[in-house]
Amino acid sequence: MNNTSYTETQSPTLQAIFKTLEEQNELKARQRLPTIIFLCILIAFGIIGNITVLVVYSLKYRSSTFRTYILTLAIIDLLSCLIAMPVELVDNLYPLMFFVEAFCKGGRFLGYVFKIGSAFIILIMAAGRFKKICKPFSKPISAKQARILCVMAISVAILFAWPNAIIQGTRNHYLDGGIIGFDCSVDDRVKKTIYPFVYTVVLLAVYVFVFFVLVVLYTIIILKLHHHNKIEDKKHKINPRITKIMIAITVAFILSYLPDCILDANSTFNKGNTLPPTPIVLGTLPLLARAYFVNNVINPIIYFFGESKFRRIIKLSFTWLLSTLLNRRGEPAIQIKVSDTFGTDDKLMFTRKHTTSSTKSRATSNRISQLEIGKLDSGL
Predict the structure, then answer these.
(1) pTM for the full predicted model
(2) What is the distance, to the nearest Å, from the Cα of residue 154 to the centroid of all Cα atoms in its chain?
(3) Among candidate residues 264, 354, 260, 247, the one with its CA nearest the CA of residue 302
(4) Cβ contacts of 283 within 8 Å, gap of 6 or more
(5) Quick one: which of 86, 321, 361, 370 has the most CB atoms within 10 Å?
(6) For the chain, how long is the longest CA-to-CA vector?
(7) Measured between alpha carbons, how far is 10 from 31 in angstroms, rounded to an integer?
(8) 271 CA to centre of own chain
């Protein structure tokens, strides 16, 4: 967003005006420093975490509906970290100098696709878990059907998100001294029409519907599990661990989306922000409006603490990497061998080479130990 080449070709008067715009932009960006730091942290952790999820679940887990949903969410979350979050970061770094309208429209459109798509995928997960637990004698959802449902969810998300390509755009800010700033928001061409209001109401209705259905489904699921005994769980192949992970994903989703929904409802029905423009408010509101991005970062953490197999693979991989870096000879002191296929026994072979020296001879001996990781639930 550097416009130095532009200002050098203008008259001194225009250069002074542009510098004034830069100064006002810098002042506004400083107010949003908490949001800028927040987004930078989320981008870094989100990229690392979601790539890790994609690698581990793609290579070390056999095909199942649970794996399909996890991989789909990871792809959406990773794209959000690579596309949607950087757009919002630029918007906060240049709150009065967002000149590239195509970048604004395209970024916000894709951002809403990922945002709405995550909501629908989580809803599909809840419906599948409800069917698995509350209707155990019905035909289970296959991995292929799960992939079809995920594609349908993304397609519906695109249908709900496409109006952003029209509604979002550069908006003029008329500042003191006749200076005009630009930010990525509701396009000036549609700002005074009814379309932004109608679209916001529709999205709020969608989120409220998703929240309500999720709460109802998981309430029924929890009550059903409470009445189940271990014999019934084993008979119907119900894995409470997977249910707990899904509940944690759902809770994180709802909590991260609520602030943005509340702020949208406030600005929509009250025709603008009703809070006083204090420094705390100006610094906090942009962050709360983007708190839903936490949903794109927190899932790997949930898997790490809730999935023993995922956690052990990460720990062993980290141990292998650390030992390799610390080995002076350049040879890995620890080798991890993972079975190529996970059939009936999902085993992770952890081979450790321990080299010892002897005063009697220079020969080395290797000691191998194996750790077996528990079986992964075959599906929902």
Answers:
(1) 0.79
(2) 15
(3) 247
(4) 31, 32, 33, 34, 35
(5) 86
(6) 89
(7) 30
(8) 30
Q: Give dist(CA 126, CA 129) in Å, integer.
A: 5
187 close to 168: Cβ distance less than 8 angstroms: yes
Q: Distance between CA atoms of 84 and 49, rounded to whole angstroms?
A: 17
Counting every residue written for the chain, the total comes to 380
Nearest-5° Cα angle at 264, 192 to 186: 35
Please give the structure tokens belonging to residue 169: 């755009």
Which two structure tokens, joined as six digits, stand for 66? 């649970």
Q: What does each of the 380 residues of the chain score in pLDDT, given as a tens digit? A: 444 443 344 444 444 445 678 888 998 999 999 999 999 999 999 999 999 999 999 999 999 999 999 999 999 999 999 999 999 999 999 999 998 889 999 999 999 999 999 999 999 999 999 998 888 888 888 999 999 999 999 999 999 999 998 999 888 888 877 788 888 988 888 888 999 999 999 999 999 999 999 999 999 999 888 776 655 555 556 677 888 999 999 999 999 999 999 998 888 887 665 667 777 888 888 999 999 999 999 999 999 999 889 999 999 988 888 888 887 555 544 554 444 333 333 443 333 333 433 333 344 434 333 334 344 444 44
Domains of the chain: 4-306 (1.20.1070.10), 312-380 (no CATH)
